[in-house]
Write the structure tokens for this entry.
Amino acid sequence: MYTGIVQARGRVLRLETAPHGGRLWVQFPPALMRGLQLGASVAVDGVCLSVVAMSGREIAFDVVQATLTHTNLADRRAGDELNLERSARQGAEIGGHPLSGHVSTTGTVTSAVFEGADAHLAFTVAPRWSRYLFERGFVAVDGASLTVSAVDPARGECRVQLIPDTLRRTALRRHRPGSRVNVEVEHHTQVLVDVVERVLAGGAAQPGIQGSYSEGCVLST
């Protein structure tokens, strides 16, 4: 479980590829090393991963091929920054909104402005996911909890405003039009929409399970 409040930025060291996945090595900042152990869960750009190796501040995570295919982790190159959040402790303040670290889908950036009063990120997602996005609702982008400022249902486009503190704390500045962002829709909204749609369609009011991608939390390597 995570809160969507990015705690620090890490830096990609290398992605070692293998036939069925790979191993991602990330340099952690000192502030995030306290108490970190093998098996610990960390949200890396919003993807729940488990620590499998440690060498000083060089931390390794195994990722299966499905995760590399369905998230933006495969897009990262040595030197790229990543958003990092350690798993939330029981009783900790939730400054953002509850996240599982199971990425729903990736979005394609259509507009990125990082300066001035109109600093924002806009991206499109597939129709099956855009129906869970509502103005003033929550969405996680690369693991950062953000408020939806506008939605264009016809285009499947979502826009989030970026305050200076968010830009300082996260790695969202790396994005440009055409790049991919990891998107996790808000779980309660997803359940509510699924239930209402089934009720209106006359079906059973039981939300289905959507595909999502993570490591070390639900899907093991």
Observations:
- The chain has two domains: 8-86, 105-200.
- Residues 105-200 form a domain with the Elongation Factor Tu (Ef-tu); domain 3 fold (CATH 2.40.30.20).
